[in-house]
Design brief:
The chain is of the alpha/beta class. It has eight helices and ten strands. The protein has two domains: 105 residues, Bordetella uptake gene, domain 1 (D-Maltodextrin-Binding Protein, domain 2); 82 residues, Periplasmic binding protein-like II (D-Maltodextrin-Binding Protein, domain 2, 3-Layer(aba) Sandwich).
Length: 214
C-alpha cells in the first residue's frame, strides 16, 4: 500500500537520525584494529561533528582509532554504498541521517543497495528538531505573517536546505504543501556550505541557528 504524499513527507521530516553499521562477525575481540566511520556529508556540518565526537569517545574507551571518512554526494548514497560493499566485519561503520534510510528509497529509482536488507542498525544518537528561520530583512515576525507574505510574493523567496532529499528539504516541501505557498528550493552540498552560503542571502530556510526564528 502506498503512503499518501503528505503522510510520507510528515513521517520523513520527523524521522530520527539512525547510525548503522555492517553486521559484526561474532566471537571476536572487538575492535582489534582501527575502525572507519563513513559519513555521507562534508566536514563541518552537524552530522560530521557528531561523528567526530563519537569517534573520539569510542577511541578513548576501546583503545583503537576510529577514523572519520567523509564521502559526500547523492544524498549520502555514496557513503551508504561504500559501507554495503565493505567486508561485513564491523570495521566499516556508517553514520547516517534521514535520507538513506527513509527518503532515498523513494527518491531514487535505482539504488545499488537495499538499506533494510544490507545495513544492520546499531544505535540512535541524536534527535534534531527543524526550525524555520528568516532573514531579518523580511517584513514578517510570525509564521502566519510569513505565509501571507509568501502568498502575495509567489516564487520570490528562497528556501535553502542542506541538499536534495535531506530533512530540511522534506520539511520545506511539507510546509509548502500544507500552506499552499511557493518557495524556491536552493539545495547546498551539506550543512557547512549551507550555513556559509546563506549568511548574506534573503529568504527562508528550514533548520539552523543564526537567523531570526519565527
Amino acid at each position: 500500500m502506498k503512503c499518501p504524499r503528505r503522510q510520507f513527507l510528515g513521517l520523513a521530516a520527523g524521522a530520527v537520525a539512525l547510525p548503522v553499521m555492517s553486521r559484526i562477525a561474532r566471537g571476536q575481540a572487538y575492535p582489534a584494529r582501527p575502525v572507519r566511520i563513513i559519513i555521507g556529508f562534508p566536514a563541518g556540518g552537524g552530522a560530521d561533528i557528531v561523528a567526530r565526537l563519537l569517534g573520539q569517545w569510542l577511541s578513548e574507551r576501546l583503545g583503537q582509532p576510529f577514523i572519520i571518512e567523509n564521502r559526500p554526494g547523492a544524498g549520502s548514497n555514496i557513503a551508504a554504498e561504500a559501507v554495503v560493499r565493505a567486508v561485513p566485519d564491523g570495521y566499516t561503520l556508517l553514520l547516517i541521517t534521514l535520507p538513506a534510510n527513509a527518503v532515498n528509497a523513494a527518491l531514487y529509482e535505482k539504488l545499488n543497495f537495499n538499506f533494510v536488507r544490507d545495513i544492520a542498525p546499531v544505535a540512535s544518537l541524536t534527535r534534531d528538531p527543524n526550525v524555520m528561520e528568516v532573514n531579518p530583512s523580511l517584513p514578517v515576525k510570525t509564521v502566519p505573517e510569513f505565509i501571507a507574505y509568501a502568498k502575495v510574493n509567489p516564487g520570490k523567496i528562497n528556501m535553502a536546505s542542506t541538499g536534495i532529499g535531506g530533512a530540511q528539504h522534506i520539511a520545506g516541501e511539507l510546509f509548502m504543501e500544507m500552506t499552499g505557498v511557493q518557495l524556491n528550493h536552493v539545495p547546498y552540498r551539506g550543512a557547512a556550505p549551507f550555513d556559509r552560503a546563506y549568511q548574506s542571502r534573503q529568504g527562508a530556510r528550514i533548520g539552523g541557528d543564526d537567523r531570526r526564528p519565527l
